[in-house]
Amino acid sequence: MGLKIEALDPTDFAEFREFYSVYARANQDSVNPDGSKESPLYMPWLAEELEIAFLSDEYARFDPIFVRREQDIVAVAFAELPQRDNLDTAYLEVWVPPELRRQGLGSALLARLEMRCGEDGRTRFMSETVRPLNEDSSAGVQFLYEQGFGFDTSLAQSQLTLPCQLTESGLDRGFRLESWRGLPPNRWIDRYAQLRAALNSEAPSGEVQLNDEYWDASRLKHEHDQWKRQKRIAQTVVAIDAEENLVGHTQLVFSSLSPIVHQWDTLVVPAARGNGLGLALKREAMRAAADLCAGKRLIVTWNHAKNTHILAINERLGYRQTAWVDQFFKVLG
Ligand SMILES: CC(C)(COP(=O)(O)OP(=O)(O)OC[C@H]1O[C@@H](n2cnc3c(N)ncnc32)[C@H](O)[C@@H]1OP(=O)(O)O)[C@@H](O)C(=O)NCCC(=O)NCCS
């Protein structure tokens, strides 16, 4: 078809801005067909976040590419390639604005990304796409099947409208909570890194088993610095048992540029489950970050659809599901 596909130079500000405006336009059908303008379907990266991420670092390399027609960028895609864990895996995203769909742009970009990631030794590709609650399929789902991807699992995307009423946190005897903003205190940093790393093996997932991510104190410091540059701040809460073990954590991430707050990474280690820690951690994060929540519109979170415990916790906090996120994979023969 003679499409011109180029790699983005993320240090070229003008080119990045053009890339981002196409990405944002491809997200514009982001009003949830449940009719509510209050619950966006897609949660796109903000320009400032993506620009910093695209610079890549020792933990993740990004590979952004685009289709140029005449002078203009018309469709975009990027791969994220972990550098310290899951070295066989690449996470792929393809974005085509609504008016340019069904012209082969998406498949050309995906094929090129797969080739570039294959050259980097990646043999497993992961991708995901949002689906409205009341629909069985979506353009992204059809597209990924057509490109030879297999369905892995679905996540529930849920949101809590702010401001909200918080009930008191009860906590079983033998546990206490601590919280911080930004960098973990020195006394916890190594053990907190271990907890962050444990998510892939300890949280329910689909058929595709990802290895644990590489986390240590240096990476946490790097993340903190990167978030500062992206204008984000995290409120972290950890649970500690009577023997001073870190047994759970959760994280609320705020952007000074957006009214949407992200609830990420809630984990309670198996030995400490059944003590109400999940609920207590999430409540405490909202309580501790009450000043940051002021003026924000909603908190969004993603959980494995089969993780009934965390979904029940979300419901108690007042979350309601707003969409599905379907996850797909392809393994090279
Ligand atoms: C999914 C997306 C990237 C597809 O881009 P596109 O340029 O329209 O894709 P293509 O034209 O290359 O489509 C290739 C094939 O996928 C399938 N497909 C794509 N969109 C489809 C749709 N809405 N319904 C049914 N099949 C569809 C078709 O088989 C199509 O071939 P055909 O047009 O000859 O029938 C685009 O809809 C999009 O940006 N969606 C939002 C982001 C997203 O979900 N990305 C996918 C995961 S990263």
Give a verbal description of the structure:
The chain has 10 helices and 12 strands. The mean pLDDT is 93. The protein has 2 domains: 4-154, Gcn5-related N-acetyltransferase (GNAT) (Aminopeptidase, 3-Layer(aba) Sandwich); 175-296, Gcn5-related N-acetyltransferase (GNAT) (Aminopeptidase), CATH 3.40.630. It has helices at residues 13-26, 47-54, 105-119, 139-146, 186-197, 199-202, 217-229, 277-288, 290-293, 308-317, and strands spanning 4-7, 60-69, 72-82, 89-95, 124-132, 150-161, 175-181, 232-241, 246-255, 260-268, 298-304, 320-331. Helix 3 (105-119) links the parallel strand 4 and strand 5. The protein is globular, with a radius of gyration of 20 Å. With 333 residues, it is an alpha+beta fold. The chain has a 12-stranded mixed beta sheet, with helices on both faces. The two termini are 27 Å apart. Helix 8 (277-288) packs across helix 10. Helices cover 30% and strands 32% of the residues. The structure holds coenzyme A. Coenzyme A (COA) is lined by residues 26, 93-96, 101-107, 127, 129, 139-140, 142-144, 146.
List keywords for this structure.
2 domains, 333 residues, Aminopeptidase, alpha+beta, 10 helices, 30% helix, twelve-stranded mixed beta sheet, 12 strands, binds coenzyme A
Mean pLDDT: 93
Radius of gyration: 20 Å
Q: What is the second-level CATH architecture of the largest domain? A: 3-Layer(aba) Sandwich
Query: What is the global morphology?
Result: globular
**What is the top-level CATH class of the largest domain?**
Alpha Beta
| Helix percentage | 25-40%
Q: Helix and strand succession?
A: EHHEEEHEHEEHHHEEEHHEHE
Number of strands: 12
What is the name of the CATH topology of the largest domain?
Aminopeptidase
Class inferred from helices and paired strands: alpha+beta
> Low-confidence runs (pLDDT<50, min 5 residues)?
none
Separate helix tally: 10
Strand order of the largest sheet: 1-2-3-4-5-12-6-11-10-9-8-7
- Small molecules (ligands, ions, cofactors) in the structure: coenzyme A
What fraction of the residues are assigned to beta strands by DSSP? 25-35%
Tally of discrete structural domains: 2
The H-level CATH homologous superfamily of the largest domain, spelled out, is: Gcn5-related N-acetyltransferase (GNAT)
The largest sheet is: 12 strands, mixed
Report the span from N to C terminus.
27 Å
